[in-house]
Amino acid sequence: MTSGRDFLSTVRAAMREQDSALVEAVECVLYENDFRRVIIQIMKSAQRLLKAEAASLFLVNRRTRHLEMAASTNLPRRMERLIKFPIGIGVAGWVAEHGQSVNVENIVHDRRHYEGVTKLTGYQTKGYLSVPLKVGSQILGTIQVLNQTQGGKFTEEDQALLEGFSVIAALALRKNQMHAVALEKKRIQGELAVANAFQQKMLPSVFDPPETIRIDGYNRPARQMGGDIYDAFAFSTGYCFLVGDVSGKGPGAALWMASLSNLLHFLAHQGKNPMTEIHVIDQHLANTMPSGLFITLFICTIEGGMLRYTGAGHNPALHISKNGTLSELQSSGLPLALMPDLPREIHEIELKPGDRLVLYSDGVVEAENQSGDMYELSRLQSICMRSRKESPTEMITKIRRSVGRFTGGAEQSDDITLLIVAANEEREKNL
User: Fold this and answer.
1) pLDDT by residue (tens digit) across 89-125?
2) Which helix (H) or strand (E) holds 381?
3) Most buried by CB count within 10 Å: which residue of 25, 73, 336, 428?
4) Domains with residue ranges and CATH for the chain
């Protein structure tokens, strides 16, 4: 006859075995990133502890509404991939549908029994305990143990223990999903970083303007890739510079901006004046850009001291004369790719020594602070007037600082782009 001390020793040993198995499972989840290896370890621990012949795990495929075998302790991997059935079919399918555990002594006698798995594997199942894998109210799959080695039905304690293992398995699944998302995010961020570096290289960092002007530009995208552009380049009879903005943000907008820049450079290399060829670009973009997308643009050319400009739905450029008069270079044309058949007006003014031109995008004047207030045009005009005698590079630095002080660390919501041109005063001495 077993003494009370012997019985207590047996109970303590069983509890230690349970604790050890659960700890092993938790440690595997914490320190192992191979999901299948984690799940196999959890199932083997459950199988050993519940004295079962085998264990398996099904996951819900939400797209097909099927249960698909993810792992087992008794089947080859190639066979596991073949086992799938609709949610609601079979005992495991019922568990996945209702989120409740099922413990049957002989599954063959259960009206929910699905013979498809037995026919496929040849494995004869009697005792069957299946519990749901859940996170909150969301059912992710099921875990089950098969055939109690001592015969008969799994106990209520066995069910409670397997439900504990299911919590650990659900944790492993969530960790695996988060790990996959993190890896994908890292991959995308890497690709975007490369694309951003490429995009920034497309923006001129060194300018080669005629001797009569100095020029500098600045761009800071709101995301890793932006839809703004500035550019400046020579053509056969003069010099062209511009600022543009694609509706939308991200890689798509950046690609359309790259396309516009390439078109302009191609025309210049063909010996054509980009200003007079805007209608060709407009028609091309209207034929190729997706519906609803468009590009705003402010483009200028300098030929023999005369500034010609036209706008396509973009912010007017600021013209600051040497004596401190500020005016807006208005141009009322529609954005590119909307109505290319409408004529565009080209305006002309004399660019005198000491004059400044400031081209900018919405991201400057619509930059918001923590309270949601916008920087607005008046602030830009004020800082431009105060720094009008500075070089283009210094003017950009002061505008950036002014915008930064105003926003006070608020998240940037739009790309910020500036291009500043200064007519050299030395020109007067050479005339």
Assistant:
1) 999 999 999 999 999 999 999 999 998 888 888 888 9
2) helix 376-386
3) 336
4) 4-176 (3.30.450.40), 191-430 (3.60.40.10)
